[in-house]
Design goal:
Znf_A20; zinc ion binding; two-stranded antiparallel ribbon; mainly alpha; 104 residues; metal-binding; rod-shaped
Length: 104
């Protein structure tokens, strides 16, 4: 008959469906196990969130570096390919007046 008693030794009879615990002790054990599981899940989620933030941060800094570099490359290319065009202004004196007409 001692093998029928609750595994915790509370004096009540255990049940094989509840791993040898009485209903009261089984609820306590189940609650403890569930709380531990919830805590572990929360810690895992927190770790995952931190890793995702670190990854996003590294991606945004790489993107900023890439953007700065491409901006520099663009300026360098523009400088090489830019053609200097000088526009010469010529002025023509209109007959019979002191006015000048500027032509391009």
């Amino acid at each position: 008959q001692s093998d029928l008693l609750c595994k915790k030794g509370c004096g009540y009879y255990g049940n094989p469906d509840w791993q040898g615990f009485c209903s009261k002790c089984w609820r306590e054990e189940y609650h403890k196990a569930r709380q531990k599981e919830i805590q572990e899940d929360w810690e895992l989620a927190e770790l995952q969130r931190e890793e995702e933030e670190a990854f996003a941060s590294s991606q945004s800094s790489q993107g900023a570096q890439s953007l700065t570099f491409s901006k520099f490359e663009g300026k360098k290319t523009n400088k090489k390919t830019r053609k200097v065009t000088t526009v010469k202004k010529s002025s023509v004196r209109l007959p019979g007046s002191d006015q000048r007409r500027v032509m391009f």
